Amino acid sequence: MNELTGKVAVITGAGSGLGRELSLLCAQADMRLALADVDAQGLAETVALLPDGTEQFTRQVDVSKAEAVQALCDATYDNYGAAHLVFNNAGVAVSGPTWTSTLDDWNWVLGVNLMGVVHGVKSFVPRMLESGEPGHIVNTASLAGLSSVPGSSVYCVSKHGVVTLSECLHHELQAAGGAIGVSVLCPAFFKTGIADSERNRPAEYADANPQGEEYAKFVKAAIEAGRLSAADIAQVTMEAVRDGRFYILPHGGAVRQVETRMQDILEQRAPTNPLGTR
Ligand SMILES: NC(=O)c1ccc[n+]([C@@H]2O[C@H](COP(=O)([O-])OP(=O)(O)OC[C@H]3O[C@@H](n4cnc5c(N)ncnc54)[C@H](O)[C@@H]3O)[C@@H](O)[C@H]2O)c1
Protein backbone atom coordinates (compact mmCIF):
# COMPACT_ATOMS: atom_id res chain seq x y z
CA MET A 1 0.00 0.00 0.00
CA ASN A 2 1.87 3.01 -1.27
CA GLU A 3 -0.42 5.99 -0.93
CA LEU A 4 -1.37 6.56 2.71
CA THR A 5 -2.48 10.21 2.74
CA GLY A 6 -6.13 10.53 3.80
CA LYS A 7 -6.46 6.76 4.28
CA VAL A 8 -7.79 5.23 7.51
CA ALA A 9 -5.52 3.39 9.96
CA VAL A 10 -6.90 1.23 12.78
CA ILE A 11 -4.42 0.43 15.55
CA THR A 12 -5.03 -1.82 18.55
CA GLY A 13 -2.70 -1.52 21.54
CA ALA A 14 -2.33 2.15 20.59
CA GLY A 15 -1.95 3.26 24.22
CA SER A 16 1.70 2.26 24.66
CA GLY A 17 4.92 1.00 23.06
CA LEU A 18 4.76 -0.05 19.42
CA GLY A 19 1.08 0.85 18.95
CA ARG A 20 1.82 4.40 20.06
CA GLU A 21 4.76 4.71 17.63
CA LEU A 22 2.67 3.32 14.77
CA SER A 23 -0.02 5.86 15.62
CA LEU A 24 2.53 8.69 15.39
CA LEU A 25 3.86 7.50 12.03
CA CYS A 26 0.37 7.05 10.58
CA ALA A 27 -0.53 10.56 11.77
CA GLN A 28 2.66 11.93 10.19
CA ALA A 29 1.56 10.25 6.94
CA ASP A 30 -1.69 12.27 7.18
CA MET A 31 -3.83 9.23 7.80
CA ARG A 32 -7.09 9.32 9.75
CA LEU A 33 -6.83 7.23 12.90
CA ALA A 34 -9.02 4.82 14.88
CA LEU A 35 -7.06 4.09 18.05
CA ALA A 36 -8.02 1.29 20.43
CA ASP A 37 -6.67 -0.03 23.69
CA VAL A 38 -7.95 -1.50 26.92
CA ASP A 39 -6.08 1.35 28.68
CA ALA A 40 -8.00 4.63 28.27
CA GLN A 41 -5.28 6.66 30.00
CA GLY A 42 -2.62 5.28 27.62
CA LEU A 43 -4.81 6.20 24.65
CA ALA A 44 -5.16 9.78 25.94
CA GLU A 45 -1.36 10.01 26.27
CA THR A 46 -0.92 8.81 22.69
CA VAL A 47 -3.44 11.35 21.39
CA ALA A 48 -1.58 14.14 23.24
CA LEU A 49 1.53 13.27 21.20
CA LEU A 50 -0.17 13.41 17.78
CA PRO A 51 0.50 16.36 15.48
CA ASP A 52 -2.12 19.14 15.71
CA GLY A 53 -5.02 18.61 13.35
CA THR A 54 -4.74 14.79 13.24
CA GLU A 55 -8.14 13.32 12.53
CA GLN A 56 -8.65 10.61 15.14
CA PHE A 57 -11.01 8.91 17.52
CA THR A 58 -10.22 6.56 20.38
CA ARG A 59 -12.12 3.64 21.79
CA GLN A 60 -11.54 1.55 24.89
CA VAL A 61 -11.54 -2.00 23.53
CA ASP A 62 -10.62 -5.38 24.97
CA VAL A 63 -9.54 -7.21 21.80
CA SER A 64 -10.22 -10.60 23.39
CA LYS A 65 -13.94 -9.78 23.14
CA ALA A 66 -15.36 -10.29 19.64
CA GLU A 67 -18.22 -7.84 20.16
CA ALA A 68 -15.83 -5.09 21.33
CA VAL A 69 -13.70 -5.41 18.17
CA GLN A 70 -16.85 -5.51 16.02
CA ALA A 71 -17.97 -2.28 17.72
CA LEU A 72 -14.56 -0.73 16.90
CA CYS A 73 -15.03 -1.74 13.26
CA ASP A 74 -18.56 -0.30 13.17
CA ALA A 75 -17.33 2.96 14.74
CA THR A 76 -14.52 3.17 12.17
CA TYR A 77 -16.97 2.82 9.26
CA ASP A 78 -19.45 5.19 10.93
CA ASN A 79 -16.74 7.85 11.36
CA TYR A 80 -14.73 7.44 8.18
CA GLY A 81 -16.68 5.13 5.85
CA ALA A 82 -13.57 2.99 5.37
CA ALA A 83 -10.65 1.10 6.93
CA HIS A 84 -7.49 0.73 4.85
CA LEU A 85 -4.62 -0.20 7.17
CA VAL A 86 -5.44 -2.40 10.18
CA PHE A 87 -2.80 -3.13 12.82
CA ASN A 88 -3.81 -6.06 15.02
CA ASN A 89 -1.13 -5.17 17.52
CA ALA A 90 -2.37 -5.41 21.12
CA GLY A 91 -0.50 -8.04 23.11
CA VAL A 92 0.50 -9.30 26.54
CA ALA A 93 3.18 -11.68 27.79
CA VAL A 94 3.58 -14.16 30.62
CA SER A 95 6.58 -16.30 31.59
CA GLY A 96 7.31 -19.57 33.35
CA PRO A 97 7.58 -23.32 32.79
CA THR A 98 4.84 -24.88 30.67
CA TRP A 99 3.82 -27.36 33.37
CA THR A 100 3.17 -24.64 35.97
CA SER A 101 1.45 -22.21 33.55
CA THR A 102 -2.09 -21.77 34.80
CA LEU A 103 -5.26 -22.04 32.76
CA ASP A 104 -5.72 -18.32 33.50
CA ASP A 105 -2.34 -17.64 31.82
CA TRP A 106 -3.41 -19.61 28.74
CA ASN A 107 -6.89 -18.12 28.51
CA TRP A 108 -5.72 -14.54 29.02
CA VAL A 109 -2.75 -14.59 26.63
CA LEU A 110 -4.42 -16.62 23.88
CA GLY A 111 -7.51 -14.43 24.25
CA VAL A 112 -5.57 -11.21 23.66
CA ASN A 113 -2.69 -12.24 21.38
CA LEU A 114 -4.40 -14.81 19.16
CA MET A 115 -8.16 -14.26 19.44
CA GLY A 116 -7.55 -10.50 19.33
CA VAL A 117 -6.10 -10.98 15.85
CA VAL A 118 -8.88 -13.41 14.88
CA HIS A 119 -11.46 -10.81 15.93
CA GLY A 120 -9.68 -8.06 13.99
CA VAL A 121 -9.63 -10.17 10.83
CA LYS A 122 -13.23 -11.35 11.19
CA SER A 123 -14.56 -7.84 11.78
CA PHE A 124 -12.55 -5.81 9.28
CA VAL A 125 -11.65 -8.06 6.33
CA PRO A 126 -15.22 -8.70 5.05
CA ARG A 127 -15.96 -4.96 4.97
CA MET A 128 -12.60 -4.15 3.41
CA LEU A 129 -13.24 -6.74 0.67
CA GLU A 130 -16.75 -5.43 0.14
CA SER A 131 -15.42 -1.90 -0.38
CA GLY A 132 -13.16 -3.00 -3.24
CA GLU A 133 -10.54 -0.47 -2.12
CA PRO A 134 -6.87 -1.44 -1.60
CA GLY A 135 -6.04 -2.26 2.00
CA HIS A 136 -3.48 -3.91 4.24
CA ILE A 137 -3.54 -5.93 7.48
CA VAL A 138 -0.51 -6.00 9.79
CA ASN A 139 -0.58 -8.67 12.48
CA THR A 140 1.96 -8.23 15.26
CA ALA A 141 3.46 -11.64 16.06
CA SER A 142 7.04 -11.88 17.37
CA LEU A 143 10.27 -13.74 16.78
CA ALA A 144 8.64 -15.97 19.41
CA GLY A 145 6.19 -16.89 16.64
CA LEU A 146 9.02 -18.39 14.62
CA SER A 147 11.01 -20.00 17.42
CA SER A 148 10.39 -21.89 20.66
CA VAL A 149 11.77 -20.14 23.72
CA PRO A 150 12.05 -21.92 27.09
CA GLY A 151 9.88 -20.26 29.71
CA SER A 152 7.65 -18.66 27.09
CA SER A 153 5.44 -21.45 25.77
CA VAL A 154 2.16 -19.62 26.39
CA TYR A 155 3.42 -16.53 24.56
CA CYS A 156 5.11 -18.61 21.81
CA VAL A 157 1.94 -20.64 21.15
CA SER A 158 -0.06 -17.42 20.79
CA LYS A 159 2.48 -15.88 18.40
CA HIS A 160 3.00 -19.06 16.32
CA GLY A 161 -0.76 -18.95 15.90
CA VAL A 162 -0.59 -15.39 14.62
CA VAL A 163 2.12 -16.31 12.10
CA THR A 164 0.25 -19.25 10.58
CA LEU A 165 -3.07 -17.35 10.63
CA SER A 166 -1.36 -14.54 8.70
CA GLU A 167 0.17 -16.95 6.16
CA CYS A 168 -3.21 -18.60 5.52
CA LEU A 169 -4.89 -15.20 5.28
CA HIS A 170 -2.28 -14.02 2.76
CA HIS A 171 -3.02 -16.97 0.44
CA GLU A 172 -6.77 -16.46 0.76
CA LEU A 173 -6.63 -12.73 0.09
CA GLN A 174 -4.41 -13.31 -2.93
CA ALA A 175 -7.04 -15.72 -4.26
CA ALA A 176 -9.70 -13.08 -3.51
CA GLY A 177 -8.04 -10.66 -5.94
CA GLY A 178 -5.01 -9.37 -4.06
CA ALA A 179 -6.38 -5.90 -3.24
CA ILE A 180 -5.75 -6.50 0.45
CA GLY A 181 -2.20 -7.25 1.52
CA VAL A 182 -1.00 -8.87 4.73
CA SER A 183 2.18 -8.52 6.79
CA VAL A 184 3.25 -10.39 9.88
CA LEU A 185 5.62 -8.53 12.18
CA CYS A 186 8.18 -10.70 13.99
CA PRO A 187 10.52 -8.57 16.10
CA ALA A 188 12.89 -9.79 18.82
CA PHE A 189 12.98 -7.91 22.16
CA PHE A 190 12.58 -4.11 22.13
CA LYS A 191 11.86 -1.69 24.94
CA THR A 192 8.14 -1.15 25.71
CA GLY A 193 5.69 -1.86 28.51
CA ILE A 194 5.38 -5.56 27.52
CA ALA A 195 7.45 -6.78 30.50
CA ASP A 196 4.86 -5.09 32.70
CA SER A 197 1.90 -6.83 31.00
CA GLU A 198 0.48 -7.85 34.38
CA ARG A 199 -0.89 -4.29 34.62
CA ASN A 200 -3.51 -5.36 32.09
CA ARG A 201 -4.36 -8.79 33.55
CA PRO A 202 -8.12 -8.92 34.19
CA ALA A 203 -9.31 -10.05 37.65
CA GLU A 204 -11.07 -13.03 36.06
CA TYR A 205 -7.61 -14.40 35.03
CA ALA A 206 -5.82 -13.55 38.29
CA ASP A 207 -4.18 -16.96 38.83
CA ALA A 208 -0.63 -16.45 37.49
CA ASN A 209 2.18 -18.99 37.02
CA PRO A 210 3.71 -19.49 40.50
CA GLN A 211 7.12 -20.09 38.90
CA GLY A 212 7.07 -17.21 36.45
CA GLU A 213 9.41 -14.86 38.24
CA GLU A 214 12.83 -16.15 37.19
CA TYR A 215 11.92 -16.20 33.49
CA ALA A 216 10.13 -12.85 33.77
CA LYS A 217 13.36 -11.29 35.13
CA PHE A 218 15.27 -12.62 32.14
CA VAL A 219 12.65 -11.24 29.71
CA LYS A 220 12.64 -7.85 31.44
CA ALA A 221 16.44 -7.60 31.19
CA ALA A 222 16.37 -8.63 27.50
CA ILE A 223 13.71 -6.01 26.77
CA GLU A 224 15.69 -3.30 28.57
CA ALA A 225 18.76 -4.27 26.53
CA GLY A 226 16.81 -4.16 23.22
CA ARG A 227 19.01 -2.74 20.45
CA LEU A 228 16.11 -1.28 18.43
CA SER A 229 13.48 1.07 19.87
CA ALA A 230 9.72 0.86 19.40
CA ALA A 231 10.09 3.84 17.04
CA ASP A 232 12.63 1.86 14.95
CA ILE A 233 10.29 -1.15 14.74
CA ALA A 234 7.38 1.11 13.73
CA GLN A 235 9.53 2.69 11.01
CA VAL A 236 10.53 -0.70 9.56
CA THR A 237 6.89 -1.81 9.71
CA MET A 238 5.64 1.22 7.77
CA GLU A 239 8.33 0.67 5.11
CA ALA A 240 7.20 -2.95 4.77
CA VAL A 241 3.57 -1.84 4.39
CA ARG A 242 4.57 0.59 1.65
CA ASP A 243 6.61 -2.17 -0.06
CA GLY A 244 3.86 -4.77 0.41
CA ARG A 245 6.29 -7.11 2.24
CA PHE A 246 4.76 -10.08 4.10
CA TYR A 247 7.39 -11.14 6.65
CA ILE A 248 8.82 -8.28 8.72
CA LEU A 249 11.91 -9.29 10.72
CA PRO A 250 13.42 -6.03 11.98
CA HIS A 251 16.22 -7.75 13.93
CA GLY A 252 19.04 -9.17 11.77
CA GLY A 253 19.94 -11.99 14.19
CA ALA A 254 16.39 -13.30 13.91
CA VAL A 255 17.10 -14.77 10.51
CA ARG A 256 19.78 -17.10 11.92
CA GLN A 257 17.43 -18.31 14.67
CA VAL A 258 14.73 -19.14 12.14
CA GLU A 259 17.25 -20.85 9.88
CA THR A 260 18.52 -23.03 12.76
CA ARG A 261 14.98 -24.06 13.70
CA MET A 262 14.15 -24.97 10.10
CA GLN A 263 17.38 -26.97 9.86
CA ASP A 264 16.54 -28.78 13.13
CA ILE A 265 13.18 -29.77 11.65
CA LEU A 266 14.55 -30.82 8.26
CA GLU A 267 17.32 -32.90 9.85
CA GLN A 268 14.91 -34.27 12.47
CA ARG A 269 17.27 -33.38 15.32
CA ALA A 270 16.33 -32.03 18.77
CA PRO A 271 15.44 -28.31 18.81
CA THR A 272 18.34 -25.90 19.39
CA ASN A 273 17.70 -23.68 22.42
CA PRO A 274 17.46 -20.12 21.00
CA LEU A 275 18.64 -18.67 24.33
CA GLY A 276 21.70 -20.90 24.45
CA THR A 277 20.73 -21.92 28.02
CA ARG A 278 20.11 -25.46 29.31
N1 LIG B 1 8.38 -5.39 23.19
C1 LIG B 1 8.86 -6.51 22.69
O1 LIG B 1 9.99 -6.94 23.01
C2 LIG B 1 8.04 -7.28 21.67
C3 LIG B 1 8.69 -8.24 20.88
C4 LIG B 1 7.93 -8.94 19.94
C5 LIG B 1 6.58 -8.67 19.79
N2 LIG B 1 5.97 -7.74 20.59
C6 LIG B 1 4.55 -7.51 20.40
O2 LIG B 1 4.32 -6.13 20.13
C7 LIG B 1 2.94 -5.83 20.42
C8 LIG B 1 2.87 -4.49 21.14
O3 LIG B 1 3.41 -4.67 22.45
P1 LIG B 1 4.44 -3.62 23.08
O4 LIG B 1 5.77 -4.30 23.09
O5 LIG B 1 4.29 -2.31 22.45
O6 LIG B 1 3.94 -3.64 24.62
P2 LIG B 1 3.13 -2.54 25.45
O7 LIG B 1 2.76 -3.22 26.72
O8 LIG B 1 3.94 -1.29 25.53
O9 LIG B 1 1.85 -2.28 24.55
C9 LIG B 1 0.81 -3.23 24.45
C10 LIG B 1 -0.53 -2.48 24.45
O10 LIG B 1 -1.58 -3.45 24.34
C11 LIG B 1 -2.62 -3.05 25.25
N3 LIG B 1 -3.46 -4.20 25.61
C12 LIG B 1 -3.17 -5.19 26.48
N4 LIG B 1 -4.22 -6.02 26.57
C13 LIG B 1 -5.18 -5.54 25.75
C14 LIG B 1 -6.48 -5.97 25.42
N5 LIG B 1 -7.03 -7.07 25.97
N6 LIG B 1 -7.19 -5.26 24.51
C15 LIG B 1 -6.67 -4.13 23.96
N7 LIG B 1 -5.44 -3.67 24.25
C16 LIG B 1 -4.70 -4.37 25.13
C17 LIG B 1 -1.88 -2.47 26.44
O11 LIG B 1 -2.71 -1.64 27.24
C18 LIG B 1 -0.76 -1.71 25.77
O12 LIG B 1 -1.16 -0.38 25.49
C19 LIG B 1 2.40 -7.02 21.21
O13 LIG B 1 1.61 -7.83 20.37
C20 LIG B 1 3.66 -7.76 21.62
O14 LIG B 1 3.42 -9.12 21.84
C21 LIG B 1 6.68 -7.03 21.53
Automatic annotation (TrEMBL):
The keyword Oxidoreductase applies. Belongs to the short-chain dehydrogenases/reductases (SDR) family. InterPro entries: NAD(P)-bd_dom_sf, Sc_DH/Rdtase_CS, SDR_fam. SUPFAM superfamilies: NAD(P)-binding Rossmann-fold domains. This is Short-chain dehydrogenase. It holds the Pfam family adh_short. One of its GO terms (molecular function) is oxidoreductase activity, acting on the CH-OH group of donors, NAD or NADP as acceptor. Keywords: Oxidoreductase.
